[in-house]
Amino acid sequence: MALTHKTVPEPQAILRVWMPFKEVVGVTSVHCEEDDTQARATIEVLLNVSAALFL
Q1: Rounded CA gap, 48 and 52, in Å?
Q2: Which residue, 26, 29, 41, 43, is the most exposed by fewest CB within 10 angstroms?
Q3: pTM above the 0.90 mark?
Q4: How far apart are CA 42 and CA 38, in angstroms?
């Protein structure tokens, strides 16, 4: 097991938030170019938001 500075959530806690997250994000796997485009746009938005939080 990896050493972390924060506690790792229990699997059930992760699963409770996964389905709403999946519905909002819309893409959790890439099967075609359209999925890839959507996933990249979503990742870019998430990275921009997380970067703004830490400024």
Answers
A1: 6
A2: 29
A3: no
A4: 6
Question: How distant is the alpha carbon of residue 8 from its chain centre?
Answer: 16
The one-digit pLDDT tens for each residue of the chain (55 residues) are 567 678 888 999 988 998 888 888 877 888 999 989 988 998 899 888 888 877 7
Query: DSSP string of 18-55?
Result: HHHHHHHH--SS--SHHHHHHHHHHHHHHHHHHHHHT-
Alpha-carbon distance of 9 to 24, in angstroms, equals 21
